[in-house]
Amino acid sequence: MSHHIVEVKDLYFTYQDGTPAIRGVNFRITHGESVAVVGANGAGKSTLLQQLNGSAVPQRGEVRIGDFPVTRERLKEIRRTVGMVFQNPDDQLFMPTVFDDVAFGPLNWGLPADEIEARVDEALTKVGALSLKNRPSTRLSAGEKRAVSIASVLAVSPDILVLDEPNSDLDPRARRRLIELMKTFKHTKIIATHDLDMVLDLCPRTIVLAEGKVVADGRSLEIFSDEQLLKESNLEKPLRMQEYPDR
User: Fold this and answer.
1) What value, to the nearest 5°, has the Cα angle with vertex 83 and ends 51 and 203?
2) How confident is the prediction for the chain on average, in pLDDT?
3) Of 96, 121, 91, whose CA–CA distance to 106 is shortest?
4) Per-domain boundaries in the chain
5) Are 6 and 160 in contact (CB under 8 A)?
6) pLDDT tens per residue, range 171-227
7) Cα diameter, the chain
8) What's the pLDDT at 220?
9) pTM of whole model > 0.85?
10) Alpha-carbon distance 23 to 199, whole Å?
11) Strands 60-65 and 6-14
12) CA triple 102-88-115, angle to 5 deg
């Protein structure tokens, strides 16, 4: 099975108040790609990502993960393949302790206790948060919550990693550690972010959304060099690509 392939065909999604969020989106992401999804606030990034693991299901069109369409009946298989890191860590951390949060997925798979313990330790070590293992989840800083939410996804060893604004609330050192961690994840990565410099570090390909539509899909460097496209999409060049006047 082609588990690592993500395909979106003519996808539409409208909020309950009638506001269109996704309008006719199409793309295909193959095994091992690292792809950024960028756009201004309200462009539809988070809503699009939620379609990829079944947090929301298509109202029209289709999302396929490998051989399976994303439907309510397929959620178990889809979520075993697609690990989702939500924009707000509090949406993922709801157990009494950090250990319980990171162990939640493996526990629901019915894994033995010793393997669960090993997975928790490994995932927390990867994000530099092993010392938080027995800490109550409610007593974490914003950056610590972000690290633990990522660990909770890594613990289930997904084939596809989907991250919504993963570096929000992170200080510069934690941001750099996250980037280095993401470089070690060899399977498919889909990252929604406003941090275009991080995109240059991680994602050779970028999809640009505006008003729920794909307005560009291609090499990140080419997209970020298109000043007219960036202006029309309410985006700015990554800092490292901007020219600063001599002082």
Assistant:
1) 85
2) 90
3) 121
4) 6-92+161-237
5) yes
6) 888 888 888 888 888 889 999 999 999 999 999 999 999 999 999 999 999 999 999
7) 63
8) 97
9) yes
10) 24
11) antiparallel
12) 10
DSSP string, 180-242: HHHHH--SEEEEE-S-HHHHHHH-SEEEEEETTEEEEEEEHHHHHT-HHHHHHTT----GGGS
- 6-92+161-237: CATH architecture: 3-Layer(aba) Sandwich (3.40)
Is the CB of residue 89 less than 8 Å from the CB of residue 58? no
Residue of 47, 30, 29 lying closest to 39 (CA atoms): 47
Q: What are the backbone dihedrals phi and psi of residue 109, each rounded to the nearest 5 degrees, phi first?
A: -80, -10
DSSP string, 86-118: -SSGGGT--SSBHHHHHHHHHHHTT--HHHHHH
Question: Could you tell me the CA-to-CA distances from 82 to 66, 118, 176, 177, 187 in Å, in that order?
Answer: 10, 21, 24, 22, 11
pLDDT confidence of residue 58:
84
Residue 245: predicted pLDDT = 58
Nearest to 161 by CA among 186, 179, 144, 178: 186
CA 102 – CA 154 distance, rounded (Å): 9
Helix (H, G, I), strand (E, B) or coil at 25: strand
Instruction: Please report, as a single letter, which amino acid is at residue 84.
Output: M
